[in-house]
Amino acid sequence: MLRKTMMRLACVPLAAALAACGSAPVAPGYYRVERGDTVSRIARSHRQSLQSIVRWNNLTNPDAIDVGQVLRVAPPGTARAAGANAATGTTLRSGTASNTPSAGDVPAARALPDTAVPANGISLIWPTSGKLVRGFDGVNSKGIDIANVAGTPVLAAAPGTVVYAGNGLRGYGNLLIIKHNADFLTAYAHNRKLLVKEGERVAQGETIAEMGDTDYDRVVLHFELRYGGRSIDPSRYLPAR
């Protein structure tokens, strides 16, 4: 039974796994993708053009949307969209970035700067120290990569509950997923060792893993931030260095 369960997990994309962990109602002006949905169907049901939905959500491939993904279905700047931003406490429009780091050294864990401006009730700290070697692009990279030596402490970027701890998701190695509230989750991949278990409550800054190279070709922490099941750029919510 355990073997079959692990095989099923290996076939599930991280987006679906994360979406399954958070399915709270979305704010006005947004829509959460359900099984069987297409971008065309969503556009028609919200009386918008296909091109508008693609543009508002920066969809590089309209045929590749995930169950649980949250899409903007109202024009940016409208009352509905403004209400959504106020309700979520964050802005997901393209071209809007704050505290976005360039490649370089991430500060040591014991010298982390103040947390970023809270995003919908959470604020993040850097999850480890090291060199930022890969940024977020939303297509080939759903998060950021921080390189350092094996065994470097990996910290919880915000307080929350561990909802996944294992290596059943292909391509992520030893993986932790932490749920912070109804909308936000963070993921920590390629760890050498996991120090917390599913169901555990963790504090911000608590050591949850050791950096490693499981399912990867170098020692690195791959860090993802998800809002409503959709990957967003963690750099926008991390403090400036």
From TrEMBL:
<dbReference type="InterPro" id="IPR018392">
    <property type="entry name" value="LysM"/>
</dbReference>
<feature type="compositionally biased region" description="Polar residues">
    <location>
        <begin position="92"/>
        <end position="102"/>
    </location>
</feature>
<dbReference type="InterPro" id="IPR036779">
    <property type="entry name" value="LysM_dom_sf"/>
</dbReference>
<feature type="signal peptide">
    <location>
        <begin position="1"/>
        <end position="19"/>
    </location>
</feature>
<dbReference type="Pfam" id="PF01476">
    <property type="entry name" value="LysM"/>
</dbReference>
<feature type="region of interest" description="Disordered">
    <location>
        <begin position="82"/>
        <end position="107"/>
    </location>
</feature>
<dbReference type="Pfam" id="PF01551">
    <property type="entry name" value="Peptidase_M23"/>
</dbReference>
<keyword id="KW-0732">Signal</keyword>
<comment type="similarity">
    <text>Belongs to the E.coli NlpD/Haemophilus LppB family.</text>
</comment>
<dbReference type="GO" id="GO:0009279">
    <property type="term" value="C:cell outer membrane"/>
</dbReference>
<dbReference type="InterPro" id="IPR050570">
    <property type="entry name" value="Cell_wall_metabolism_enzyme"/>
</dbReference>
<dbReference type="GO" id="GO:0032153">
    <property type="term" value="C:cell division site"/>
</dbReference>
<feature type="domain" description="LysM">
    <location>
        <begin position="29"/>
        <end position="73"/>
    </location>
</feature>
<protein>
    <submittedName>
        <fullName>Peptidase</fullName>
    </submittedName>
</protein>
<dbReference type="GO" id="GO:0004222">
    <property type="term" value="F:metalloendopeptidase activity"/>
</dbReference>
<dbReference type="InterPro" id="IPR011055">
    <property type="entry name" value="Dup_hybrid_motif"/>
</dbReference>
<feature type="compositionally biased region" description="Low complexity">
    <location>
        <begin position="82"/>
        <end position="91"/>
    </location>
</feature>
<dbReference type="InterPro" id="IPR016047">
    <property type="entry name" value="M23ase_b-sheet_dom"/>
</dbReference>
